């Protein structure tokens, strides 16, 4: 999975927790960068699970810029939230795909 503890040192506790295990049935609010307000917006759009958000990221061919634009424009994310969450999903893919 993760290469050594050096990489882990630069991660937030929330990102570390998300990367520590498979996605399973985790709610979307488990994704690093997803605030309570953004989670409500996502749930309203039918994106209530982390794996559904991951699916959207994968449909966009893991293109972080495109995914961030979609989160900001369609879901009301801030730039910071969009960056954090796309990084979280990218890191998860690097560990588990």
From TrEMBL:
<dbReference type="InterPro" id="IPR036617">
    <property type="entry name" value="BAF_sf"/>
</dbReference>
<dbReference type="InterPro" id="IPR004122">
    <property type="entry name" value="BAF_prot"/>
</dbReference>
<comment type="function">
    <text>May play a role in BANF1 regulation and influence tissue-specific roles of BANF1.</text>
</comment>
<dbReference type="InterPro" id="IPR051387">
    <property type="entry name" value="BAF"/>
</dbReference>
<dbReference type="GO" id="GO:0000793">
    <property type="term" value="C:condensed chromosome"/>
</dbReference>
<dbReference type="GO" id="GO:0005634">
    <property type="term" value="C:nucleus"/>
</dbReference>
<dbReference type="GO" id="GO:0051276">
    <property type="term" value="P:chromosome organization"/>
</dbReference>
<dbReference type="GO" id="GO:0003677">
    <property type="term" value="F:DNA binding"/>
</dbReference>
<keyword id="KW-0539">Nucleus</keyword>
<dbReference type="Pfam" id="PF02961">
    <property type="entry name" value="SAM_BAF"/>
</dbReference>
<protein>
    <recommendedName>
        <fullName>Barrier-to-autointegration factor-like protein</fullName>
    </recommendedName>
</protein>
<comment type="subunit">
    <text>Homodimer. Heterodimerizes with BANF1.</text>
</comment>
């Amino acid at each position: 999975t993760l290469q050594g503890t050096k990489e882990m040192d630069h991660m937030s506790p929330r990102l570390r927790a998300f990367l520590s295990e498979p996605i399973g049935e985790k709610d979307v609010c488990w994704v690093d960068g997803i605030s309570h307000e953004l989670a409500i917006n996502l749930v309203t759009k039918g994106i209530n699970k982390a794996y559904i958000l991951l699916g959207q990221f994968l449909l966009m061919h893991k293109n972080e810029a495109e995914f961030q634009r979609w989160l900001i424009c369609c879901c009301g994310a801030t730039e910071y939230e969009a960056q954090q969450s796309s990084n979280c999903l990218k890191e998860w893919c690097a560990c588990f795909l």
